[in-house]
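Changelog entry

Holo records now carry the ligand SMILES as an explicit input line rather than a separate metadata file. Below, a converted record for zinc ion, shown in the new format.
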Amino acid sequence: MAAFKRIVILTGAGLSAESGLATFRDKDGIWSKYDISEVATPEAFARDPAKVHDFYNQRRRGLRLAAPNTAHLALARLEREFPGQVTIVTQNIDPLHEAAGSQRLIHMHGELLKALCAHCDARHPWHDDLSTEVACPSCGRAGGMRPDVVWFGEMPYRMDEIYDLLAQADLFASIGTSGTVYPAAGFVREALTAGAHTVELNLEPSEGTSLFAEKIHGPATQVVPQWVERLLANAR
Ligand SMILES: [Zn+2]
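Structure line, unchanged by the conversion:
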């Protein structure tokens, strides 16, 4: 294995599934029980904010019982011990990477534990339920507080930074993602263009599995710690 210097790791719901957080796109996932257009779009929020708040309040409460698993912990260890740059770009809105100790972390789809004020654009850490009555701690106005998550039809966060990282990466790993949601599903092509080695770690082959040079299939809590161990052993 080559000596890598810049690793970019894309993570998705499959990583947090083993922490007890439901995935969105599996056949028993959240989107099999809810209609995206009713709970996860700017239009839905404009039409029925209470319904959207209820949906995200349930997700936020669900975090109380969730803890990082061995895969999250292994990725935090990789960042600490690898003699190069390790950046995690996550599609997950849960806080399990940071709870595991990861620091170079980009939440491209936002964070469930933050609220965003539509009136003044202020962001605040948020652990309680949101409602249309909640006032913004910055501007004092009510009615504009929303979960700081990227809804369908909105632009994911920090994309320029992510594409710069991909253009410089020599190893790109995709962990626990369905490979169906763009722009994240296109990151592997960016990494290949940059000449990076590419590896998919997923429970089963994803939609984009044929694009990856290396594929490791199995539960994240098994395959991710083994992969991290191998990367660290080869770096010594
Ligand atoms: Zn405000």
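Spot-checked after migration. The longest helix spans residues 220-235. The first strand starts at residue 6 and ends at 11.
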